[in-house]
Amino acid sequence: MSNSTTLKVRLPVFVVLLEIVILALYAVFVTYDDNANAKLQNNQTNPMENSLYRDYPYFSDVQVMIFVGFGCLLAFFRFYGFSGMVFNFLTATFAIQWAILVQGFFQFYYDGKIHLSVINLLNAEFACAVVLISFGAVLGKTSPVQLLVMVLLEIPVFAVTEWAVLKYIRINDAGGTILIHLFACYFGLGVTFVLYRPSLNDGHAKEITSYHSDILSVIGTLFLWVFWPSFNSALTFKGDDQHRAILHTFIGLSASTMTAFALSAMFNKRGKLTMADIQNVTLAGGVTVGASVDMMISPAAAYALGIMGCTACFFGYKYLTPFLAHHMRIQDQCGIHNLHGLTGLISSTAGICAILLATEETYGPSMYQIFSHRAPPEGDPKLLELQRMIPGLKPGLGRTAQEQALYQVAAVFSTIAASAIGGLVTGFIMKLPSMASPADRDCFDDELFFDMPSDFVGAEVLKTTCNDEKGQIKSMDSNV
């Protein structure tokens, strides 16, 4: 390892500084939520009414997705399995710690404290998912120091964008299509645009998979697939909204999975299945139903969205990813533009259509709860009438369906713009010489940053062994 990439000083110093800052901020600003505060417990308290029992199942499901699903999925390179899983572990852990503080800043602004609860952890996990999606664009080409810097910068940009969109534009985005998938995608593309490496456009000797790495990656896909309904439904209204979200997500995922197998066999020259399609394209339906996941779109529409998302994702991997690399300086290592960008745009369009088609005839009075910004404003006689039917219904903005649809469009473009600009700025900072960035020849190689076990066969050894075996076979053939 050269002095330019050694972690001996850089990583410990950077981590210790981060931990000191986070510890100080937690000590000053973070306290318990009412549901975790012992002072508020008395003989009138029913422990089973604690919000823990409502929120923890979703928190644990999303945690499995982040640490196991993403971790295994990113271990698909033959010589980069340690880095894919372990850097995911490091990045995710710091992202959640940091997101609790950054997202909690807006709570601190109003309350003077950040009140920590399981729902705060869940929101922090969604912010973490944003970072891990962006990480996919630069997989194999960055050091752990660079990744920590990316977390440090991306979380605040995401939190501010999320706050601005939800407070001022005010949209429906139950599954996080706009604020998670589109933001993460275009932030990651902005970073990889700045970190462009011309020599990697034609591939890299170590940019290959193996039998065991592909199996591990598919295990990650299966974890993501199984728990994706929790991801899409965690923040929806409890009851029938959450019920629809789970149903639509499963139907969309199952449709995209079936379609992925068909397309993979159809477009393979030998009519066989390609593991990359199974690892990624099967998940497209989970993203595509996200923007309308809690709406009355019908099971058939969810199925159609799963097929559409899978098809777009598949052809994106096949044709768009190489085009972006060769003509637009965007080396999207994991194809996040296909799985999160293209499908996110389809999902956003479907959500806009669902908003335009929403009527009281279909939804009943609950339409003004699902589409809260369409509810009558304070003082409107209709609001009092609706509140008699739906106790607790909050005043809205009185928007029409067309107005809400336009705000959704505005949110899509503003989110993409904010994330792309944030990604470009972050990329320039990550490119600084002090960030221990690997040289082109050392990309996709665990040996650069890890002490490898004795049974690990590196790329150079493997190449020599293969050449020796070829020479022996050639010699045997000549003797025969």
TrEMBL record:
<feature type="transmembrane region" description="Helical">
    <location>
        <begin position="12"/>
        <end position="32"/>
    </location>
</feature>
<feature type="transmembrane region" description="Helical">
    <location>
        <begin position="216"/>
        <end position="235"/>
    </location>
</feature>
<feature type="transmembrane region" description="Helical">
    <location>
        <begin position="58"/>
        <end position="80"/>
    </location>
</feature>
<dbReference type="GO" id="GO:0005886">
    <property type="term" value="C:plasma membrane"/>
</dbReference>
<feature type="transmembrane region" description="Helical">
    <location>
        <begin position="145"/>
        <end position="166"/>
    </location>
</feature>
<comment type="function">
    <text>Functions as an ammonia transporter. May play a role in the elimination of ammonia in the gill.</text>
</comment>
<feature type="transmembrane region" description="Helical">
    <location>
        <begin position="178"/>
        <end position="196"/>
    </location>
</feature>
<dbReference type="GO" id="GO:0008519">
    <property type="term" value="F:ammonium channel activity"/>
</dbReference>
<keyword id="KW-0924">Ammonia transport</keyword>
<keyword id="KW-0472">Membrane</keyword>
<keyword id="KW-0812">Transmembrane</keyword>
<protein>
    <recommendedName>
        <fullName>Ammonium transporter AmtB-like domain-containing protein</fullName>
    </recommendedName>
</protein>
<keyword id="KW-0813">Transport</keyword>
<feature type="transmembrane region" description="Helical">
    <location>
        <begin position="86"/>
        <end position="106"/>
    </location>
</feature>
<dbReference type="InterPro" id="IPR002229">
    <property type="entry name" value="RhesusRHD"/>
</dbReference>
<feature type="transmembrane region" description="Helical">
    <location>
        <begin position="341"/>
        <end position="359"/>
    </location>
</feature>
<dbReference type="InterPro" id="IPR024041">
    <property type="entry name" value="NH4_transpt_AmtB-like_dom"/>
</dbReference>
<keyword id="KW-1133">Transmembrane helix</keyword>
<dbReference type="Pfam" id="PF00909">
    <property type="entry name" value="Ammonium_transp"/>
</dbReference>
<dbReference type="GO" id="GO:0097272">
    <property type="term" value="P:ammonium homeostasis"/>
</dbReference>
<feature type="domain" description="Ammonium transporter AmtB-like">
    <location>
        <begin position="24"/>
        <end position="433"/>
    </location>
</feature>
<comment type="similarity">
    <text>Belongs to the ammonium transporter (TC 2.A.49) family. Rh subfamily.</text>
</comment>
<keyword id="KW-0325">Glycoprotein</keyword>
<dbReference type="InterPro" id="IPR029020">
    <property type="entry name" value="Ammonium/urea_transptr"/>
</dbReference>
<keyword id="KW-1003">Cell membrane</keyword>
<feature type="transmembrane region" description="Helical">
    <location>
        <begin position="247"/>
        <end position="267"/>
    </location>
</feature>
<feature type="transmembrane region" description="Helical">
    <location>
        <begin position="405"/>
        <end position="429"/>
    </location>
</feature>
<feature type="transmembrane region" description="Helical">
    <location>
        <begin position="118"/>
        <end position="139"/>
    </location>
</feature>
<feature type="transmembrane region" description="Helical">
    <location>
        <begin position="300"/>
        <end position="320"/>
    </location>
</feature>
